[in-house]
Specification:
- It comes from Alishewanella tabrizica.
- Pfam families: DUF4824 (PF16106).
- InterPro entries: DUF4824 (IPR032249).
- This protein folds into two domains: 181 residues, no CATH class; 53 residues.
- 38% of the residues lie in helices and 23% in strands.
- The protein contains seven helices and eleven strands.
- Strands 4-8-7-5-6 form a five-stranded antiparallel β-sheet. Strands 1-10-11 form a three-stranded antiparallel β-sheet.
- The model has no long low-confidence stretch (mean pLDDT 80).
Length: 298
């Protein structure tokens, strides 16, 4: 015969589990009861996990949000290395930077992480600026390589060296052309453009935007860290920079009916292209409301 104490502990454990589930489901319902924004993202902003389709018994799927911050205006050499990377450094206005109340550099920048808010922009001015940078880099490289070719011809280089130089220029140009194509067709269009510990500061920024693109802006929670450059011991003027470590929600659960629509390509020979309707609710938490393969009917 079991002891009364054991039954009580079992009952308490069941109540705790049920209570936790009820709390979670209640928060989900409250979040989804109000839609504050809806974005139409694609495989450019929502990446499939690397193992998708490789584990036969695993039918679960989460799509990871791909985002970046506005790019520095790089010179030609830096662009060569930066064009595919997702940045996390963000330069802020003094009021936004001050709102985090970072400590002194003696504490180290690694330990100075704060909970805060960021302003997300989808397919807006930051992405257009990036496209412009990609095109300018491609055009500038074309002009420089053309000038080099003329100079080498005038210098009377021997045929072997001239062929080598021509081949090198052609490879550089093809690489730059591929970078421009990637900028137009593949990189994420989701940018973090501002951050603050005080949400009201971002609300003021958001209020200054109007027009059709205003609906593509939203405020979401994130973890913010002091930039390592702030504590560098140099004589240069310090930029109020932060490192956006992560968004509070960076992956979206894909329900089985939606996941079944995505073809499984274990060899990763083809890019799976799709469109996804992502809604943000009352607590700025996103969820997937629709998913279709590109070129197919909903």
């Amino acid at each position: 015969m079991s002891k009364p104490g054991a039954k009580k502990r079992l009952l308490l454990a069941v109540i705790t589990v049920l209570g936790a589930n009820a709390f979670i489901l209640g928060n989900v319902w409250l979040n989804r009861s109000v839609v504050i924004a809806e974005l139409t993202l694609s495989e450019r902003e929502l990446s499939l996990p690397y193992h998708w389709g490789r584990v036969k018994d695993d039918s679960s799927l989460r799509l990871n949000l791909a985002w970046t911050t506005p790019w520095f205006t790089p010179n030609e050499d830096k662009w060569h290395y930066l064009y595919r990377q997702q940045q996390r450094i963000l330069t802020l206005q003094p009021p936004q930077f001050a709102s985090f109340r970072f400590g002194s550099c003696t504490e180290g920048y690694q330990r100075q992480q704060r909970s805060g808010w960021v302003l997300l922009e989808f397919n807006g001015q930051s992405y257009q600026d990036y496209l412009k940078q990609a095109e300018q880099y491609y055009s500038a490289l074309q002009q420089r390589l053309a000038a080099e070719a003329v100079a080498e011809l005038n210098a009377g280089l021997v045929q072997d060296r001239l062929r080598e130089a021509t081949k090198r220029r052609q490879e550089q140009l093809e690489h730059a052309e591929e970078q421009w194509r990637v900028a137009r067709e593949e990189v994420t269009r989701l940018f973090v453009i501002d951050a603050a510990a005080d949400r009201n500061l971002l609300q003021q920024t958001l209020a200054n935007h109007s027009g059709p693109k205003a609906s593509q802006l939203l405020i979401v929670p994130a973890d913010i860290q002091l930039s390592y450059t702030w504590c560098q011991n140099d004589k240069a003027a310090k930029q109020p920079e932060v490192l956006v470590n992560r968004l509070a929600v960076e992956s979206l659960y894909v329900a089985k009916p939606y996941a079944q629509r995505l073809p499984i390509d274990t060899d990763r020979q083809q890019k799976i292209r799709f469109q996804a309707q992502v809604r943000y609710g009352r607590f700025a938490e996103p969820w997937l409301s629709a998913l279709t393969l590109s070129g197919t009917e909903p």
